[in-house]
Design a protein that fits this description.
By secondary structure, the protein is mostly helical. The chain is built from 21 helices and 8 strands. The relative contact order is 0.13.
Amino acid sequence: MRRLLKYSIIAAVALSGCTDDFLTQDVKGTQVLDNYFNNEQECLAQVYGCYQTLAFDDWWQIYNTYILADMCTDDGWMNNTTQGQDGYNDLVLYQGKTTSGTLANFWQYRYKGIHYCNTVLEYVPKVTTVSQEKKNRMIAEAKFLRAYQYFELVKNFGGVPLVISMATPEDAKNIRRASLEETYAQIEQDFLESVEALPLRSETIKNGELGRATKGAAMAMLAKVYLYQEKYTEAEQYLDAVINSGEYALLDDFSKVWNMDYNNSEEGVFEIQTSGDITYNVGERISVVAGSRDDSGWSWGGPSSDLENAYIAEGDDIRLFCTIIKHNATAIPNETQMDKFEYKVKNENGEEEVIKGKYPILPSKHKSGRVNAKLYIPLAKRIEGNYDAPHIALNYRLLRYADVLLMAAEVKNQLGKDGDAQTYLNAVRSRVNLSDVTATGTALRDAIRKERRLELAWEGNRLYDIRRWTDDNGKKMACNLFGPNGSWVIYNTQVSTDEFETTNLIEPQDEGKDFNENRDLLFPIPSAEVVQSNGMLEQNPGY
């Protein structure tokens, strides 16, 4: 904790797709805080810095954990089998270790973001040159973003230290770890207070501020917080409010959902804003990290054949095409230049042969021979000479309206309102030409769970869903998927005949067998944080 609270104010560009001012502000250096907050521009600069902390400057601070989380599920593999997998395998293989650099970065940078928000909350209320209305909005944005940061921490680690004011390193030594209930209570409070002062999405569009937090985003996030705690009645209230607001809608074509031409669309409830302006590091590079090694990528995080089979079993060709790219694919979502792809192989006679017009994800380098189509960047959209850099202008979708509808379906089903649940579930299915679900009760519950997997695959939801869902045997779904008798382990070791996964055994086929249900429903708190806390941070059970 000590190193997390020692940061000077840095006001940086965080938003794009809004006004020109957001894209052209210079990054400011260290400031003396008491002399900085003199006017609206300086206050806003710090608020924009809070937005920047959602992802920081590159892939490794935050985005990397999003990929890691999906690797830890039945939706995928580490996938890259040409490099050491030390950055991920401790957690993906459920080895019970506490030294993950990926998690250490995530913890540190989430608390950096919290510190930025606390700076706003400390200084903006004191400013006398800005109207109370504008200050209220800035305060609400900081509370919204702080709540989001803490929600990310509680999902992964359970109760965490609550730093809700400016603190010195010495102060931090005495901050104990809050309970799970205390942490969630603080998150709820921040989201609730932000709802009141944030504008509607339509107002941000009218004022050229699209990308900043909105009332709808706060209500949807709050509903998700309630859902994760099984507070279904509370979640219902805010999900109903978002749906009935008329501010959001599903895009008509699923291929548009992760298309950069549809950043901040009517389906986008909250997104990390990006820009392709190479003057600033405010684009994303996670598309490169997750891309094929045979197409300038690093191939970390590959969809599984088990996920592919789920789409096939449902007859869900549209979302399969838009979620998984498979080796030798002849078409890719939004790609118009398939003719530019080629690679060399040796045929059965040992002669070199050139394969053209097929997308290469060579199985010798990729455990699954698959990559994530949602993060794929078409050739025409890549910045020549700067593709492998944080300059990709694809907003990262943190919360979509489809997720809101599926949360509403889940909540309504839990409250015995199956008619409403079917309506919301079938609205999502209708977009991809799937038939309506007419089941009720537990069968409807299972249909909603399956739909969340198919709709939201590789968007950072699956791990937290399988950790919170209870199956009919009373265990969390993750406990039934993993472990020596887990269905995911049995599928891969006894059932699967996938031509790629079963032949590339550099990444172990029995991944997940060491899952411990008394330990692995949370990640470990990074060991360095425990050591530096002077005994105030207690490690999660089993680690």
